[in-house]
Amino acid sequence: xxxxxxxxxxxxxxxxxxxxxxxxxxxxxxxxxxxxxxxxxxxxxxxxxxxxxxxxxxxxxxxxxxxxxxxxxxxxxxxxxxxxxxxxxxxxxxxxxxxxxxxxxxxxxxxxxxxxxxxxxxxxxxxxxxxxxxxxxxxxxxxxxxxxxxxxx
Length: 153
Ligand SMILES: [Zn+2]
Prior knowledge:
Order of helices and strands: HHHH
Oligomer: single chain
Number of strands: 0
Helix content: 40-55%
Number of helices: 4
Bound molecules: zinc ion
Largest sheet: none
Number of domains: 1
Strand content: under 5%
């Protein structure tokens, strides 16, 4: 098993300026995923089609574009939604810091930015760990399958 990464690693302050930060909004748009700029306006409506053809329009899960009945409750949708919520929080915090720069609010905004960044990094570390574990499981399964093949022959 790969060693579990240190998730509580303290990071001193925002490590980059807004200019260097990959914009999560364009980043997700480029990948064709649900768009963060839509999530900004609060919860979306579910865009799935019901059997009779009309849009579902139930409130979507936080950070996603589908309701609980239309796949929003699945583990992968929940994970992606949480990731998007954290990306948006970091983006918002960075924007707020830019706005508050050189005012008495700058320190507070900086604190919120670094908290948001730490949370997003921790979550991404978890996702990376999860991907490693999945890869390992896939390898083990492939190994087991080839062993079984050898026995059968
Ligand atoms: Zn729905």
